[in-house]
Design goal:
- It is a single chain.
- Helix content is about 25%, strand content about 25%.
- The protein has about 575 residues and is an alpha+beta fold.
- It is flat, with a radius of gyration of 41 Å.
- It starts with a strand and ends in an 8-residue tail after the last strand.
- The N terminus is likely disordered.
Length: about 575
């Protein structure tokens, strides 16, 4: 019986591995070679819509180099903390990828097929196996990540990539990015014999040319049991004299991200021997207490003072003294109060005192120079210190939440906060100031209407804005003044969008303007293809009546250039649908 010995060799041809088989007969001494060329793996293919996936996707346990990459794109990341999601996504699959040839160029080719180009903001992330995007996203930017993906394709035949088009993760959500597990060195599958022999001549065929490797080379699958050969590390073997390649050819001034390294200079040894750096604990605590900044957002509710405290200016110190007087029920009197100095004392016979002045050289603010915080007087009810300005600043958020807050409810809130309540006149002034701060000065806003209309016509051509006035006799000054009657305005983009993409259907409605000067706001809206409200035009009139609606609709008809009204449908607020 003839014995045959199979010699298997590998040769990389255009990114694929071809196999050559040599059969040597020993019975008759003749050398017979059989050269077989393995067919190239299928090229990467973009899976079409509703196309069935390849068979290897369902057979993840088989030893196959093929795998599929699913690209999640055309969306965006959003969400805080653990609520991170990818919204408005599109899904595309690329089949017949091989672990041996997987590289960054394949990802660039996928992006090119999908119509994307790396512009600095676009980044690709791989979701680790058995992980969610909140904890398993890896930025694909180097060959180490590529080797990790190729290794993972042995167990999972579908790998998922996410495309971040706006660089959201690297700017706002770096906490969800991981570097991935440590990668083991990639070992070459080629074995190098201990004793080399002459190479066999190359054999050729019509389909492909495969070069035979040297004799006595075993098949790669027997590497664990064959003791006559050693594994050759093709990626990490360095010849003699290559130790200085890094230092000779790498520019240390440029990092992986093309950024200059910051050169840290060593400090002077004399500066490190400063006595303040090695001071005693008691002296260090004393120095820390000398200067401390006053935080008005936190400390203003219940202020406390100490020597060395720094304020932004003298006005902040005055507000802090007023708040201190209210909270501690003491009467603080400012004996010296100007822009440079402030001296404050308590009631006669009380030892409490505070001295502060401007400190422009060291802190640039207002610093407390001397302070005695012990009171020896009896408590008082300093209602005068609770000014309307303090009430306005303290309860501004209350009026923003409830602008109809009455004086009785307002007085209850003040009593609950300060354990004392001023008179109704001070409460009324505080509420009026708060509402004025929220709404602004209505008279000054009405004076800006003409300027707003002129700016709207200049910056947004095609928009309409015009108003009418009535001449009114003022009985006090006995003069005729112009009184605002009507206002009509519309925006060019809204009109063009309505005429181009909405049905000829218009809804009309009016509502009351609950401000100082009252009035009626008339609106004309349409319905967009998503069945949502689409604004068209607006009008401001004194009273909602027939003449006001005729004026508004005539302006709307001219504004939209409607000549044939037969296809148009108008629904008013009085028309209700009943079954």
């Amino acid at each position: 019986m003839e014995r045959h010995r199979l010699l298997f060799g590998y040769r990389v041809l255009s990114g694929f591995v071809g196999r050559a088989f040599e059969a040597e007969g020993e019975g008759n001494g003749d050398l017979e070679r059989v050269v077989a060329s393995v067919e190239d793996p299928p090229e990467m293919r973009h899976r079409q819509f509703k196309e069935d996936p390849p068979e290897y996707v369902f057979n993840s346990g088989e030893d196959s180099d093929l795998f599929t990459v699913e690209v999640v794109h055309n969306g965006f990341f959003c969400g805080l903390r653990e609520n991170l999601t990818y919204v408005s996504a599109s899904y595309d699959q690329f089949d017949y990828l091989t672990a041996d040839t997987w590289s960054l160029r394949w990802i660039d080719e996928m992006l090119r097929i999908l119509g994307y180009v790396r512009d600095g903001k676009l980044h690709v992330y791989w979701c680790l196996l058995d992980k969610e995007i909140q904890e398993g996203l890896v930025l694909i930017e180097n060959e180490a990540n590529i080797r990790h993906m190729a290794k993972s394709s042995r167990t999972a035949k579908t790998l998922v990539l996410f495309v971040d088009h706006t660089n959201f993760l690297r700017q706002l959500r770096k906490d969800v990015l991981v570097t991935g597990p440590a990668l083991s060195p990639v070992m070459s599958s080629i074995k190098i014999p201990r004793e080399t022999t002459s190479a066999e001549p190359a054999a050729s065929s019509s389909s492909s040319i495969v070069q035979l490797v040297k004799k006595e080379v075993s098949y790669a699958c027997d590497s664990d049991t064959d003791s006559d050969f050693v594994m050759y590390d093709s990626d990490f073997d360095v010849e003699d004299g290559d130790d200085d390649l890094f230092s000779d050819n790498i520019d240390k001034s440029v990092s992986d991200h093309n950024e200059r390294e910051v050169c840290v200079q060593n400090e002077d040894e004399e500066a490190l021997e400063d006595d303040d750096l090695n001071m005693e604990e008691g002296r260090r605590v004393k120095l820390m207490k000398k200067l401390s900044a006053f935080n008005p957002e936190v400390d203003m509710d219940n202020p406390s003072f100490k020597r060395g405290m720094v304020f932004t200016d003298v006005a902040e110190l005055r507000k802090a003294l007023a708040a201190y007087s209210i909270r501690n029920r003491v009467h603080i009197k400012k004996t010296l109060n100007d822009r440079r100095r402030l001296n404050a004392n308590c009631a006669p016979g009380c030892c409490w005192m505070l001295r502060a002045s401007a400190d422009e050289k060291r802190t640039g603010g207002f610093t407390i120079k001397a302070y005695e915080g012990k009171h020896t007087c009896e408590g008082t009810w300093p209602l005068k210190a609770i000014s309307s300005k303090i009430l306005t600043e303290k309860f501004m958020h209350e009026f923003r939440d409830n602008q109809k807050l009455g004086l009785q409810s307002f007085a209850a809130k003040v009593l609950r906060e300060f354990k004392m309540c001023p008179n109704r006149f001070k409460l009324s002034r505080a509420r009026k100031a708060a509402l004025l701060n929220i709404h602004g000065d209505e008279e000054s806003q009405f004076r800006l209407l003409l300027d707003y209309g002129q700016e709207l016509r200049r910056s947004n051509p095609g928009s309409k804005f015009f108003l009418t006035t009535n001449s009114v006799h003022d009985p006090i000054t006995r003069e005729h003044k112009q009184h605002l009657a009507t206002v009509y305005w519309s925006y060019d983009a809204c009109k063009r969008g309505f005429l181009a993409g909405c049905r000829p259907f218009t809804c009309l409605d009016g509502c009351h303007i609950k401000t100082r000067y009252k009035g009626q706001l008339l609106t004309a809206v349409g319905v967009d293809p998503n069945d949502c409200i689409y604004p068209i035009a607006f009008g401001l009139v004194e009273v909602e009546c027939t003449s006001s609606w005729e004026w508004f609709l005539s302006n709307l008809k001219d504004d939209l250039n409607i000549t044939n009204t037969s296809p148009w449908t108008i629904m008013s607020d009085k028309q209700k649908v009943t079954s």
